[in-house]
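Exam prep: given the inputs below (a chain plus D-malate), describe the expected output before reading on.
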Amino acid sequence: MRLSMIKINENFLDLQDNYLFSTIAKKVAKFQEEHPDKKVIKLGIGDVTLPLAKSCVDAMKKAAEELLYKESFRGYGPEQGYDFLKEKIIKYDYKSRGIDLDLDEIFISDGAKCDTGNIVDIFAKGNKVAITDPVYPVYLDTNTMSGRAGKYNESTGRYSNIIYMPCTSENNFEPQFPDEAPDIIYLCFPNNPTGTVCTKEQLAKWVKYAKDNKSIILYDCAYECFITEENIPHSIYEIEGAKDVAIEFKSYSKTAGFTGVRCGYVVVPKKVYGYTEKSEKVSINKLWNRRQCTKFNGVSYVTQRAAEAIYSEEGQKEIKENIKYYQENAKIIRNGLQESGFLVYGGVNAPYIWLKLPDGVKSWDFFDELLNNIGIVGTPGVGFGPCGEGYFRLTAFGSRENTEEAMKKIKEYFIRESKV
Ligand code: MLT
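Solution:
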């Protein structure tokens, strides 16, 4: 018998409980089991409810049909994605905004969650990571898994090696430059969870900061299609010099209802460099390509054809209608909450509405109160970080009927109880 035994990656033991949205799903399932006749309206996880655009489904059918014949069958595709999709991305998502990108700077993937999580593979463990607080939990969890977070402090709710940039109503949800310069800076705009945005001027300051400090910005703009106001960048590459320091993550999940279909992409400009211990410059694009070729076999042909269809005239019309529908939901939620007396943020350029709870009310208590009394599910702000305590997130991705019903219930409940 051998004396050694299989060892685990102990970094996983530093993770907190469960993934936020799994905890919520479990709580809701338990409630439904105990109250089978109570209606529950889910405005928690940002999952879309409108069906896929017909153009996408037609493109998938056509692509599936091609696989039926020897002449048009496809096996492994390029790990980085098919050119037919990358060409559309370059033309419609970037060239139209005055941004030039090469085909080999785009990597098609199965979504921004995987990409923002997997990107940590190519960076050294010793890098200092800065995240906003509150933050999309994937950035923190994946750095914890790879040993970059340090030890968790129960009383502060923070990890020792992570640099937290608080974003609260006090600073208008604008992350401030940290005292210690980070190597990796995660920025997400329009922001998940707060629904707030940053202007071109604000983002330009971050690009300069990253250049000055030889840092890299990981820019998640999965919610870019919800921007309604001027002067809000849809891509970080609208900022001069960003191609030297930023990697951008895009997703079709919220843009085109692909949460179940799974497709997104990463832009890794060839001018972005990292450094070895000996200060030698290494192309980040090359590293990411190498990582993808080894660990990923590309997104299915059928899915990429569906994504391509988004860029057709009909596809654009269809997805824009869906986006408008969710934007209208966001307005209904914002108005409903304001009429109920809440202070409300986000929801103008984003599908998330971030509400401030009355003083002293804790996020998880509010979650329980809403679920138990009126059957509405949201996401407790503290689940996104300690600075989210006292806040609560609702999503605009529900059906119109459910959104209106939820707001009616919230108004009745809070006005009746004079709670706010
Ligand atoms: C959210 O609710 O924050 C998102 O749906 C999560 C995700 O996109 O993974």
